[in-house]
């Protein structure tokens, strides 16, 4: 019964692949090997030759060599006659032949996934070529850096502590770096390639995922300049901070689910309050088409290796400081440290708490420390807003940021009793 099921699956996948192949080449009058009959037959031949002598791949390999020789002759004739140097048709025929062996030898999902992937790549030619023309060399380098961070560095790091100063392992430190880099990189790609150009709300929404502090500075500079939608830019400053609370909750949830569950109601409430205020400011603002074209500069590359190393160093230093403050001064020392780190980058502090950087800290105290750090960061962003936008246009969003921070501390204190 298994052989029958495998042969039926082989024919079905080969037929699906051939159908997509013929549909893709429907408007091409040139002859080519492959199609809705050829691909199922090739897949069936591959399956039978693979099954013919169990444990001996020789018949299957001979069949592959025969097919490859015939395709090579076809390709040589095509080059002489039409000068066509594309090899997609040849590769599709080879994949159809290999499909039968994959069905016979491996899990069914491998064959299904391979077939679907091949069909998507075949039929997505126009979209993929357009993407290749749109994506520059710098983006390819950026994607390479992301692969280095995830696939090369991560497996090489030990998962045991290397110093008595902290219980964190190099693997945990780099995992925290990857968590921040992944969220920032996703926001960076969305803001650069998906978000409409010149829309301040998109800048704020995605910038809050990328870096609410950097987004505040960008929007505050725009607010202080000429030709900007004042109310809408002010709304963007508040919205970026509202999104920050959701971002912190997601990042904490990756490492400490109970802490994230305790933080989530407060963070979602603060994000909702900030979003409501931003919506009111946005509705009060008058749309100026000319000002909307003055889009702020897009985000910078979040995957610079130097930036990742600096973040890793900050994460270790702040984690050590967090553990020391907790052990030396108790919860009060943790709160004081949270207020101090809020004037810089709060991500290392928050991730340190989520990964157990302050052993013995109650969950409620950790939630309050995170909100204190976020509120301190709000004060810093309020100062940036006043500094770059001026008192006339920056006073309102700055005051709203401070009030949002105060609301966060007040809610956490009441929750913790």
TrEMBL record:
Residues 180-386 form the DUF4010 domain. The chain crosses the membrane at residues 6-22, 34-51, 57-75, 87-103, 109-128, 140-157, 172-190, 202-223, 235-256, 263-282, 302-325, 332-351, 363-384, 396-415. The keyword Transmembrane helix applies. Keywords: Membrane, Transmembrane, Transmembrane helix. InterPro entries: DUF4010 (IPR025105). It holds the Pfam family DUF4010. It comes from the Bacteria. The keyword Transmembrane helix applies. PANTHER family: DUF4010 DOMAIN-CONTAINING PROTEIN (PTHR39084:SF1), MEMBRANE PROTEIN-RELATED (PTHR39084). This is MgtC/SapB family protein. It comes from Gluconacetobacter johannae.
């Amino acid at each position: 019964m298994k052989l029958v099921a495998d042969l039926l699956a082989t024919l079905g996948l080969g037929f699906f692949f051939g159908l997509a192949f013929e549909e893709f080449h429907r408007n091409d009058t040139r002859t080519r090997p492959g199609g809705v009959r050829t691909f199922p037959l090739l897949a069936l031949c591959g399956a039978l030759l693979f099954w013919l002598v169990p444990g001996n791949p020789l018949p299957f390999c001979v069949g592959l060599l025969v097919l490859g020789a015939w395709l090579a002759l076809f390709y040589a004739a095509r080059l002489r006659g039409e000068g066509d140097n594309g090899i997609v048709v040849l590769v599709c025929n080879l994949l159809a032949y290999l499909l039968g062996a994959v069905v016979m030898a491996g899990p069914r999902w491998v064959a299904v996934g391979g077939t679907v992937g091949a069909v998507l790549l075949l039929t997505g030619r126009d979209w993929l070529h357009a993407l290749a023309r749109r994506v520059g060399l710098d983006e390819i380098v950026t994607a390479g850096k992301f692969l280095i961070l995830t696939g090369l560095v991560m497996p090489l790091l030990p998962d045991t502590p290397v110093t008595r100063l902290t219980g964190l392992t190099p693997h945990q430190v780099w995992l925290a770096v990857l968590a921040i880099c992944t969220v920032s990189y996703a926001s960076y790609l969305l803001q650069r390639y998906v978000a409409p150009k010149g829309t301040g709300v998109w800048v704020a929404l995605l910038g809050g995922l990328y870096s609410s502090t950097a987004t505040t500075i960008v929007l505050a500079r725009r607010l202080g300049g000429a030709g900007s939608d004042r109310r809408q830019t002010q709304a963007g400053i508040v919205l970026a901070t509202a999104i920050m609370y959701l971002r912190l909750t997601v990042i904490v949830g990756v490492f400490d689910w109970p802490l994230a569950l305790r933080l989530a109601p407060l963070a979602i409430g603060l994000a909702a309050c900030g979003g409501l205020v931003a919506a009111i400011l946005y509705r009060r603002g008058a749309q100026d088409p000319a000002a909307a074209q003055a889009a702020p500069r897009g985000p910078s590359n979040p995957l610079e290796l130097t930036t990742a190393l600096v973040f890793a160093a900050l994460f270790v230093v702040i984690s050590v400081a967090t553990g020391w403050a907790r052990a030396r001064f108790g919860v009060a020392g943790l709160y004081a440290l949270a207020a101090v780190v809020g004037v810089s980058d709060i991500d290392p502090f928050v991730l340190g708490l989520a990964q157990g950087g302050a052993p013995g800290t109650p969950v409620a105290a950790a939630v309050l420390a995170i909100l204190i750090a976020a509120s301190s960061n709000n004060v810093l962003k309020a100062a940036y807003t006043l500094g770059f936008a001026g008192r006339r246009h920056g006073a309102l969003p700055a005051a709203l940021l401070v009030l949002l921070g105060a609301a966060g501390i007040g809610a956490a204190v009441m929750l913790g009793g």
